[in-house]
Amino acid sequence: MNQKDKDLGKMDGDQIQFPGYYIDTDTGHWWVTDIEEGDKPDIHIGYWPKELFDLMGDGANILGIGGAVQSSSSGVSPPMGNGHLPTKKDMDSARVSEFLYRYENSDFKNYYQYSKLDKLLDSEKCYGLKKGDDYFFTFGGPGGNSCGI
Questions:
Q1: Helix (H), strand (E), coil (C) string for 39-71
Q2: Domain of residue 96, residue span
Q3: pLDDT of the chain along its 149 residues, tens only?
Q4: CA distance readout (Å), 15 to 45, 90, 92, 111
Q5: pTM of this structure
Q6: Please, are residues 80 and 127 in contact by the beta-carbon 8 Å criterion?
Q7: Which long-range contacts (CB under 8 A, 24 or more apart) does 32-37 make?
Q8: Cα–Cα distance, 39 to 32 (Å, whole number)
Q9: Which ranges does the record mark as transmembrane (predicted)?
């Protein structure tokens, strides 16, 4: 692990962005894409052939995003996100923003304009989830010995 990787867990560390995923309706392949803003073309990183997703047929009819942690055999629950509970400062914990989806051959749409955020937490003492004012949510927590999960 280099120094840059170590700084990702800090509140003032570098930010990382994960790519987008979508199904190409012409080929049926699922693409991993760096979605660019404005008039820039998206950068296609690679794809999974449609044959790997037989059960999904021509696409998906629901979308979801989530995360999970699992305690060790000693009962200690690990941190989630960058290890910080969501606070009033949106940049203090891990966050998901601009979660986009693409319906058939349309432009990408912001998931939050058409959905709600369901909160499901096993231990609010150790983990948190907070909807932001715009199109994002923050999540994370330190984990620990007495999370009860």
A1: CCCCEEEEEECHHHHHHHCCCCCCCCCCCCCCC
A2: 19-140
A3: 333 444 445 556 565 566 677 778 788 888 887 766 667 777 778 888 888 877 766 666 666 677 788 888 888 889 998 888 998 777 788 877 777 666 666 666 666 655 666 778 888 888 998 887 766 788 889 998 877 66
A4: 20, 13, 11, 21
A5: 0.62
A6: yes
A7: 35/100, 35/108
A8: 19
A9: none
**Residue 49 domain flag:** yes
Total domain count, the chain: 1
Residue 79 is assigned to a structural domain of this protein: yes
| Residue reference for tokens 């080929």 | 27
Residue 94 lies in a domain: yes
**Is 10 part of a structural domain of the chain?**
no
